[in-house]
Amino acid sequence: MASSLRLLFPLFLTCIVLLNHQVKCDEVDEEDNLLQGINSYRASANLTALTKNDNAECLADEIADQFKKQPCTNTTGSFTVPGTETQFANFPDLLAKCHLNVSNTRDGVIMPSCVPNLDPSLVLTNFTKSQYSSNLNQTNFTGIGIGSEDNWIVVVLTTSTPEGSYSPAQSTDSASLGSKSKISLIQYLLCLLMGFVFHL
């Protein structure tokens, strides 16, 4: 009996770790720091705090990924002259990856910024002391998504209107639920496999 308990205890610990494991990385910290800084900036202007929008964050991640091989220059990111921003031919594909469509992103704003090593104080300054500050000072923006890759960080602002809510496209809700259940199924299958291995 005692030997069985000795074998089950590591299995129990492994299952707990697998089921409760959360990844925390530097990019998330940078993004959380920027969100906190932007909300502090808005609070100083007596504006409401922006809330996280998962779909906008997905799009911000996808756009940051598109920028990652582009170097920082005086004409990229927040220094871009309005009207000369980078256009992505695959933008509809980026929207589709995030289960979005053009009709519910029209009123939102996408703001890329390039900062070497994503220095937190410079990242915040690139949004609060640039052409982007006018967007951050608007009352119609209620949500935010932030994504980063290499030296690029992208902020997507959302509204509470249907045209800027970044709510998922109707036809993909079941697909997103399916992917969530697949992830948890994999964790349970790993636990089952480990239990089988320890039982032998």
Strand content: 5-15%
**Gap between N and C termini:** 15 Å
* Helix proportion: 40-55%
- Walk across the major sheet and give the strand order: 1-3-4-2
Secondary-structure-derived class = alpha+beta
Question: What's the overall average pLDDT, rounded?
Answer: 77
- Output the helix-strand order: HHEHHEHHEEH
Give a quick account of the main beta sheet: strands, pairing sense, barrel closure. 4 strands, mixed
Radius of gyration: 21 Å
Q: Helix segment count?
A: 7
Shape: globular
| Low-confidence segments | 21-27, 172-182
Number of strands: 4
Account of the 3D structure:
The protein is of the alpha+beta class. 50% of the residues lie in helices and 12% in strands. Strands 1-3-4-2 form a 4-stranded mixed β-sheet. The two termini are 15 Å apart. Mean pLDDT is 77; it is low at 21-27 and 172-182.
Please outline what is shown here:
The protein has 200 residues and is α+β, with helices and mostly antiparallel strands. The protein has helices at 2-20, 26-44, 54-67, 91-97, 120-128, 133-136, 173-199, and strands at residues 51-52, 109-114, 141-149, 152-159. Helices cover 50% and strands 12% of the residues.
What are the key terms here?
alpha+beta, four-stranded mixed β-sheet
List the helices and strands and how they pair.
Blueprint: H1 2-20, H2 26-44, E1 51-52, H3 54-67, H4 91-97, E2 109-114, H5 120-128, H6 133-136, E3 141-149, E4 152-159, H7 173-199
Parallel strand pairs: 1-3
Antiparallel strand pairs: 2-4, 3-4
Helix pairs in contact: 1-7, 2-5
